Amino acid sequence: ALMFENVARLKRGEPVFFYAWAPSWMTNTMVPGKDVVWLPTPFDALPGNVPSTTSALTPGVEGCAGGADPCRMAMAAWNWYAIGNKQFIAANPAVKALVEQMTFPQSTWSYWEKTISQDGSSERNIRKLADDWMSENKATFDGWVATAKAAK
Question: Is residue 33 in some structural domain?
């Protein structure tokens, strides 16, 4: 409810302040660099006991306040991983190869999240998003599938 209130405030020309992440429907609705700015953090917010192989200093963040590049986000994208049962992955190297290649820009994730939040998370809506992406990115998708098929 608070996020919808922020959207309403922005539309009325009032100030907004909120915590968001990317990808997020919020960063697709209130676009950093256009409607809002990212406020860089003075230090990494990820607790020391949580492992991360990437930095919170994120290059190329559109809309980072003051044009900072890299922009210090609260934490790195340390938790975006595919998870699979070890036995299933061992028995299905094609699945492992496919998932290891898959990557999507934050703008794509944000669009998907916004669309699902507005249109619902029904199987039909999610399949349409997937089908649209695959048809618009046929060469990329076909390359992923070819590499996966060749996996041993």
Answer: no
Q: Which residues contact 69 (CB under 8 A, 6 or more apart)?
A: 59, 60, 61
In this predicted model, what pLDDT tens digit does every residue of 113-125 receive, in sequence order?
Answer: 788 877 777 888 8
C-alpha dist (Å) from residue 123 to 34, 96, 106, 135:
32, 24, 22, 18
Nearest CA to 98 out of 109, 80, 84, 116 is that of 84
Q: Which tokens hold the place of 118?
A: 């507005």
| pLDDT tens profile 23-71 | 777 887 888 899 999 998 887 777 778 777 777 888 888 899 999 999 8
Which residues are CB-contacts of 109 (< 8 A; sequence separation ≥ 6)?
A: 22, 23
